[in-house]
Amino acid sequence: MPENESTPAQTGLENLLHETRAFPPSPEFAAQANAKPEIYGQAADGPAFWATQARDLISWKKDFTETLDWSGAPVARWFADGQLNAAYNAVDRHVEAGNGDRVAIHFEGEPGDTRTVTYAELQREVSRAANALAALGVEKGDRVVIYLPMIVESVVAMLACARLGAPHSVVFGGFSADALRSRISDAGAKVVITADGGYRRGKPSALKPAVDDAIAPKDGAEASTVEHVLVVRRTGQDTAWTDHRDVWWHDALESADVQHTPAWVDAEHPLFILYTSGTTGKPKGILHTTGGYLTQAAFTHKNVFDLKPESDVYWCTADIGWITGHSYVTYGPLVNGATQVIYEGTPDSPHQGRWWEIVEKYKVSIFYTAPTAIRACMKWGEEIPAKYDLSSLRVLGSVGEPINPEAWMWYRRVIGGDKAPIVDTWWQTETGAIMISPLPGVTATKPGSAQVPLPGIAATVVDDEAHEVPNGGGGYLVLSEPWPSMLRGIWGDLERFKDTYWSRFEGIYFAGDGAKKDEDGDVWLLGRVDDVMNVSGHRLSTTEIESALVSNPLVAEAAVVGAADEVSGQAVVAFVILRGEHAEEASTPEGSATIEKTLRDHVAKEIGPIAKPKKILVVPELPKTRSGKIMRRLLRDVAENREVGDATTLADSSVMNLISSGLNTPS
Ligand code: WT7
């Protein structure tokens, strides 16, 4: 293992493994569950199991004859000669089946405005939007960037692209203009869909200015590929306008026809590109295609959450800017004909009971959120959820990072009334859909463990030599067989795709997570083993933040680590060496506070507020190996106030004393 990597044991989650509680499903739940124990046996026949799911859950314009073609490994082809359309599957077919009056979306805006959209209305909106995009020149294969708040139009925009066979690339609204620019340019997008702004903590927060910035001519950059910007009016705030280029969404949709024939595409046609952080500074455009992705999104949504589309009200709190919003807000639930809640704002606007008020109001029965949110609610106190009637909840989900047993128990007791099963779902942007999770009517759940690979998924834990570890052993999480919703590559960079995921172990997918198997063979996730951080369930790259820091004239060198944090899981802590001419400025408390603020704002501008370091420590040196690699593990020891570990491979072993001695004043 390279010396700057951390082992799973160093991630501080070892205490998880002393957990012995287990909660079997109640007989009533098990009896009514979609997934029964036999499903694991049925999945044993390999790809044929997925062919059955694809035909059961998805409507095909043209059926497929071949299930899996792995001859071009590691790029898989699933159901390749089949044809379908994702928007038709998510919307039209439910209307055709007589369910047009079923509510697809209960929208709750942060200021309290609401909107209810049935499947029939959704069909009209999506068709109009598809016609509007086509009128702006969007054709099958063209890329469209979506930069929107969490509003109904976000889902409509994604489906309108899918209807045309134009891959979308959603960029989270919290990313900066610079981050948006690089994603637009990497994807070569023709159109950007945005809004004047969205509501955030009681105030309108502008979005359009970032788009204007991201596509404006810039020295040294090629002219933007963007021809039009389609703008949703959400807040009504003043918005700068470029005639001919900018078009209001409501104008474009008003004049558009409510009928649109979906573009039937091959199963392997790109559905979307979603950028995520890797171990280098450049974000990776994860490519997902249509047939396999939809099959596994629908399968997992139905079985992991035990969805009954006629009676459940489902709510996933994720933003569409992340993969969770793609698979478990837009595609999975709608393909399954679910009724779902979409909420625009933060959990504490205008008060800390907002989420639970929404659960009570819509009688939410399935709720899917992230451990960081659960921990924030724990901190606010259980008297807050206690004020609301949460008895409608029957399944609870967790995603994004390991959930500590304490938070799991709180979630079960306070939110789930000690009865709703919790499904801790492990997956990634790259996997497209949930891979490891209990099945709520089958598995006896254990607080803190994602436990079992889903039926049809070959996930295991291996050691350094790729040997599967015995029960009780620890190592790396890998996926040894292709799965339908796997990424089909990194947009424009096949080599990076092979390098990143397929070179660590011959022929198997390396997820980047440390994991352990307990005595029952259940899988416990232990956090990333690479230079990727997980802050509030958001994935950030240490290198990307480091390059943002050194792009500021104050900074000579920077090293970033993810330090354990009670609420956000990990927090960004940066160590910086100032350029000589600025070194003096940090010597007074005011001076270092100013520097810290300048640099935090700088990172927010370069990447986005989510990447802002929680702490910035000015240091005289950074710990490096003889080959010049920064030993982040030692910096993590400092950031987590631990005794500094083995520093013998440092080129200069006195560096750590120098760093530690300068940090007596907590910032
Ligand atoms: C990384 C993927 C999957 C959607 C949200 C994040 C971590 C995710 C769990 C879980 C432990 C988890 C992993 C993974 N992760 N879910 N249930 N238990 N860790 O997607 O941004 O692609 O991040 O999130 O480290 O590799 P992502």
UniProtKB/TrEMBL annotation:
Residues involved in Mg(2+) binding: V550, V555
GO cellular-component term (any): cytosol
Stated family: Belongs to the ATP-dependent AMP-binding enzyme family.
N6-acetyllysine found at: K629
Stated name of the protein: Acetyl-coenzyme A synthetase
Annotated positions binding ATP: G400, E401, P402, D424, T425, W426, W427, Q428, T429, D513, R528, R539
Domain AMP-binding enzyme C-terminal: 544-629
Binding-site residues, CoA: R200, R201, G202, K203, T324, S536
Catalytic activity field: acetate + ATP + CoA = acetyl-CoA + AMP + diphosphate
Keywords: Acetylation, ATP-binding, Ligase, Magnesium, Metal-binding, Nucleotide-binding
PROSITE patterns: AMP_BINDING (PS00455)
Domain Acetyl-coenzyme A synthetase N-terminal: 45-90
Domain of life where this protein originates: Bacteria
Residue stretches making up the AMP-dependent synthetase/ligase domain: 97-491
SUPFAM superfamilies on file: Acetyl-CoA synthetase-like
Top class in the EC scheme: ligase
HAMAP family: Ac_CoA_synth
MF term (GO), any: ATP binding
NCBIfam families with a match to the protein in the record: Ac_CoA_lig_AcsA, PRK00174.1
GO biological process: acetyl-CoA biosynthetic process from acetate
